[in-house]
Design goal:
The protein is an all-alpha fold. It has one domain. The protein is built from 3 helices and no strands. The longest helix is centred in the middle third of the chain and has 42 residues, at 27-68.
Length: 83
């Protein structure tokens, strides 16, 4: 981890009890780990959404290209897979 800064958190008692129980004595490291995981999930979901949007934006073009070369694909299947 890079540079660290001290902060103060106010947590509900039941959350603090759970954090202390799960942290194995290092609350700061536990909270940093939980937050890192949370942000990793957010970045992963944002990437997934961008990929889906890109695939959808290119779908018509990709289908057209696929149809354009269908005869070549079929020729290769017939030549190499039907023997």
């Amino acid at each position: 981890m890079s540079a660290r800064q001290r902060i103060t958190l106010t947590l509900p008692t039941e959350v603090l009890v759970a954090v202390r129980a799960e942290s194995q004595g290092n609350v700061s490291r536990f909270i940093a780990s939980v937050l890192s995981s949370h942000f990793d999930k957010i970045r992963h979901e944002q990437l997934r959404q961008r990929l889906v949007a890109g695939y959808l934006a290119e779908a018509e073009s990709d289908l057209s290209l696929s149809e354009e070369f269908h005869h070549s694909d079929q020729e290769m299947v017939e030549r190499y897979l039907t023997e």
